[in-house]
Specification:
Length: about 425
């Protein structure tokens, strides 16, 4: 405070404080502007994902039907086939019950026509995906800045695998949305705890940090309840912050254990009621997939498959920009998270593209660090209705000297 007073006394008169700093320069964003921006982003994401859900009509993975919609139909209407996973208690009813409630509402409103019953779950998932896009935008804005957040949202919307997979009723799709939302609240708590403020505002900052962390823990617990493998992500995120915490015992005893115990108790009681027996789904899931390698029955890949084939194929043309963005941004927390998830998942023999969906979304902010490079690439992929063929349009903008610009368009049809 004394330094500021001396500067003002030596410089301009007291009445002339100079031009007021803009919100971006001062680091403070007006709440009304942020709310309007978030609303516009959400409206854009809702419209885009709704069109996404209506356009993608191809077959990808049986789990979007047999592990979700078929189970939901059985719960709602009393008939439907249950695969062997449900007879052995490897899946939780938490995810299918969301769509079972949707089916019941459609039946009560006499809207349960074949077309509506097929498309309504996709449209509901598109709403979840839109909120995932919003939280990715907010997360990138929190970690980097508004310009990077816009490019991260752009990368998310035009990525071919996200367009192909995120609106499907896979548990991985909802896990991805919960992961990015949880990361936003978790890093909000970290940034709030690091914020410097005057003494009168320290209590408010601490309350915001504690509440954001509790919301993040709740979302993380729900994500792990839907897919226990989500614990791989949150183990890294939690331990990284836990090492630097001052009140470790308070965090574990007052935050982690109560929230985790409540979510585990509720989901376990729900599964007991639906299964009709005492089943602990996370334990059965880990026994089958981790300790007995039951997933290997569906095929195995080499250890490096995620690094050399799976993950690069998902990022596709954005791969060089993602690599440059990782080095440029120097946000090693997110880079370490990506490497950690890829490394742990590589230990398992059975590997699939969709298992990396929640990890894939964390690269969007990283790859947007190339925003000031002299060229930009946008990739659009339209998944056709037959044989999973796609028409891929690669649009390259190469600025040249002066106001002239060179546009190059590549069209490729791939099976």
């Amino acid at each position: 405070m004394s330094h500021r007073r001396r500067s003002r006394a030596a410089g301009s008169p007291p009445g002339d404080a100079g031009p007021a700093p803009t919100p971006e320069k001062s680091g403070r964003i007006q709440p009304r502007a942020v709310l309007g921006s978030d609303r516009r982003v959400l409206a854009l994401a809702l419209a885009f994902r709704a069109a996404n859900a209506l356009l993608v009509r191809t077959y990808f993975n049986p789990d979007e039907h047999w592990q979700c919609l078929e189970v939901a139909h059985r719960v709602a209407f009393g008939y439907g086939h249950l695969t062997w996973e449900w007879k052995r208690g490897l899946r939780s009813y938490l995810h299918p019950l969301i769509f079972a409630a949707l089916y019941k509402i459609l039946a009560l409103l006499h809207l349960d026509t074949p077309w509506v019953m097929v498309m309504a779950p996709r449209l509901l998932q598109s709403v979840f995906a839109a909120f995932g896009d919003l939280y990715l935008y907010k997360f990138s804005k929190l970690i980097f800045n508004g310009q990077v957040a816009q490019w991260a949202l752009f990368s998310q919307l035009v990525n071919w695998f996200m367009f192909f997979c995120i609106t499907r009723t896979l548990s991985n799709s909802l896990e991805t949305v919960l992961t990015v939302a949880g990361l936003y609240y978790w890093f909000t708590a970290i940034e709030s705890s690091k914020a410097t403020s005057i003494v009168s505002k320290q209590h408010a900052v601490c309350e915001q940090s504690a509440s954001s962390r509790k919301v993040a823990l709740l979302i993380a617990a729900l994500s792990c309840a839907i897919r226990p493998t989500s614990a791989v992500t949150w183990l890294y995120v939690g331990l990284l912050d836990f090492i630097q915490m001052k009140s470790k015992c308070r965090f574990v005893l007052l935050d982690v254990i109560p929230i985790g115990a409540i979510v585990l108790a509720v989901t376990t009681l729900l599964d007991w009621w639906m299964f009709g027996s005492r089943v602990i789904v996370p334990l059965n899931f880990l026994k089958f997939n981790l300790f007995s390698s039951g997933g290997d029955y569906y095929g195995t890949h080499v250890f490096h498959w995620y690094f050399t084939q799976g993950f690069p194929s998902m990022i596709w043309t954005f791969l060089p920009f993602a690599m440059y963005g990782i080095v440029k941004s120097r946000e090693w927390r997110l880079s370490g998270l990506i490497a950690w998830v890829l490394g742990v998942y590589s230990i398992l023999g059975h590997k699939e593209f969709r298992l990396l969906l929640s990890c894939h979304v964390t690269t969007q902010g990283q790859k947007s660090a190339w925003e000031k490079k002299p060229f930009k690439v946008a990739t659009f992929c339209y998944s056709s209705c037959h044989n999973q063929c796609s028409h891929v349009l690669i649009y390259v903008l190469i600025p040249s000297k002066g106001n002239r610009r060179c546009y190059v368009l590549f069209v490729k049809r791939s099976p």
